[in-house]
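Chapter summary example: a protein plus manganese (II) ion.
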Amino acid sequence: MNNDHYLFVSDLHLDASLPPAVDQFLTFLDGPARAACGLYILGDLFEAWVGDDDLDECRASVCAALRRYTDSGLPCHVVRGNRDFLLGSAFEARTGCRLLPDPVLLQLGELRVFVCHGDLLCRDDVAYQQLRSIVRQSRWQKAFLALDLATRRVLAGAARKGSQAHTSRAGYRIMDVNPQAVAAGFRVSDARLMIHGHTHRPGIHDETVDGQAATRIVLGDWYTQGSCLRLYSDGRYELEALPRD
Ligand code: MN
């Protein structure tokens, strides 16, 4: 690693309706993020993304800032979230970012890190998992992307309303990660560090898997302040809140 740390963020939910979050992320990309040896965005970068042609002024400005970041020689990797799972190859071409599978095992120097958006771990939310498995099928995505942009935006807006109603009905535990799913992630990857977002419950959790200590770090959302994880090459880390003035 050139510099000594990678940065991880997630759940920025960037949208024209919340300019302070957009401004904060643009400042972050053009400033502090340049001191890292790379950036990982673990899903829900955008509040909505109904296709790579879905570019309003806000999303275009975020893409331009990502392009400046990657043009500066720093890698930026993006995991798709449940709000922006339609990010595709035109987004990669425009920004220079690389899309990653979800979940994915990263090897950063000596460190093995299991990384995902986090929605896959919320296995107790059965209705959501059913919906997820449908909208992640390439046949469904092809049919959806064949609709005109205005129709896709209307449908996505309706889906967001439905999802908010579902979230407010489902209990707190249902909406969190399932412990068996977490253990399975550690087991299959043989990693001892897991990083994800999605639940908007930032924290550092000590886990035990088959008698071995493991750590699960949850990134926070950017609705009222920023959140980022600094992961150093020697395995140290800092989960930081980034207050907004
Ligand atoms: Mn999410």
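Key point: The chain has a mean pLDDT of 94.
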